[in-house]
Amino acid sequence: MEEINLLAEKLCAEHKLSVSEYEFLIKNRTDCVTEFLRQKAVDIRKSIYGNSVYIRGLIEFTNRCKNDCYYCGLRKSNLNCDRYRLEEKQIVACTDEGYELGYRTFVLQGGEDPFFSDEVLCSIIRKIKQNHPDCAVTLSVGERSEESYRALFEAGADRYLLRHETADELHYSKLHPEGMSFKNRMNCLSVLRKTGFAVGAGFMVGSPFQTEKELSEDLKFIETFQPEMCGIGPFIPHRETPFAREKSGSAELTCFLLSVIRIIKPNILLPATTALATLIPDGRERGILSGANVVMPNLSPLAVRKKYELYNNKVCTGEESARCRVCADKRMQSIGYQIVVDRGDMKSF
Fold this sequence. Notes:
The protein is built from 14 helices and 9 strands. It is α/β, with parallel strands linked by helices.
């Protein structure tokens, strides 16, 4: 018991541990240590960001994907997926509506859809920035070439989310088919950083074949890579994937890891994810109370929201954008936090 307490105190003092220490911390966590780290994470977050919560307007603009990841409902082998892609005018219209609702960051997220070439994406980015120059554009469109990343950055994109999914190469191979490369995924993250993007990484909690060892490697990667953003959420199976019968990850462990990540990098932008809210009704609130400071309401057109199904029973597919925003406001106010109209850039620490 004393060793786990000393490790928790060491993490708070030094903002880092060894891989074996992270593994011990995860394996041997107690309610007392969990609460200690949760409160430390909240104190750290409040010292930098106060009670402010940043919102990102999420636009899921295509559910077509060339990849066949074993965990994802958008995988190309899912023949029961009702595919769609939004046109430029639809995407821009979502940002116009979002701006009126107080959003100052828009997240364009989609599968790796070859239709969205650099030319197409750059045109969309330029139009959004032309209409709303005070806003940030975040992209989440997977692995691309260095030249592509540079073109997107020069067109005006500010941030790029690319979850590494797991920092263990063997584990990566168990989650992805041949042809997808762990080394390429990690190289893409390095290239994004070099290009000038604010970079977001992230991983699933409780994915198949994952142990405390893999999670400890994820934490060490966050510690060493120092991303500006980190998105983590519990693994939730999708019925049309090879992992359909696997059990979901743990909300409790996800919240514990949110606290640890906040302590590792105090000023990180850390979302309370949709997956966490899907697993438990008050997931977003629990995420914020564990050290997160970002929520991402959905701005996608109602007609396509249910079609962007990464996992079973995804929440927030049936509410109009204005109602989503009001709902997010009320949920944050209920726990003593305030959504702010702000780009929500990472603050210095």
